[in-house]
Amino acid sequence: MDASLHICKATAADVGIISRIVERSIRLGCALDHRNDAQIVANWTHNKSAEHIQNWLADQRLHMSVAVLQDKPIGVGMASTNGQIAFCYVQPECFRRGAGQALMHHLEAWLRLQGLPAARLNSTATSEAFFRRLGYCVSAQTFNVAGLCAIPMLKTLAPPS
Questions:
Q1: Disulfide check for 153: which of 28, 43, 109, 136 has CB 3.0–4.6 Å away?
Q2: Which pTM was predicted?
Q3: Cross-referenced PROSITE patterns, in alphabetical order (predicted)?
């Protein structure tokens, strides 16, 4: 992991870059999942607009963090007080530099502080191996949502020390 990588809480000033990170990560990094089908991409990105992100930042049940590398935001992740990790997206050109792992560890730490015993998420096929390396296991049958295969995964969280 790059020493200049750090994670910080997302703010309203980050809305535009968060929207761009999410869209680029989906369009370029998840092409195996959406197969460059414009309708699937549109369905996947429709609720990731700046307006949606602003609403998520205002919601006290949600925690959104940004990964910053050399003073440039390169990733974003969000978790909920119900134990669900909603997403973890990284700029495609920054894959495999530790940002996704750092975001996930940060979100898991936040979930532990909420007193939650486990983290849940729905992975794509593209991200499944990444989440497995972080200790997530498939927890239910896959299902289809908006033309995508969703893989329910779960990780037991150790209590905060």
A1: 136
A2: 0.93
A3: GNAT
Tens digits of residue pLDDT in 15-49: 999 999 999 998 888 888 888 888 887 787 778 88
- Residue 143 forms part of a structural domain: yes
Structural domain boundaries enclosing 9: 5-156
Distance CA 75, CA 125 (A): 19
Bridge partners for 88 per DSSP: 77
Q: Are 103 and 78 in contact (CB under 8 A)?
A: no
Give the count of domains, the chain. Answer: 1
Alpha-carbon dihedral sign for residues 24, 55, 124, 43: negative
**Residue type for 32, please?**
L
CATH of residue 67: 3.40.630.30
Mean pLDDT in residue range 58-76: 96
C-beta of residue 149 within 8 angstroms of C-beta of residue 138: no
Task: Measure the CA–CA gap between 113 and 119, rounded to whole angstroms.
Answer: 12
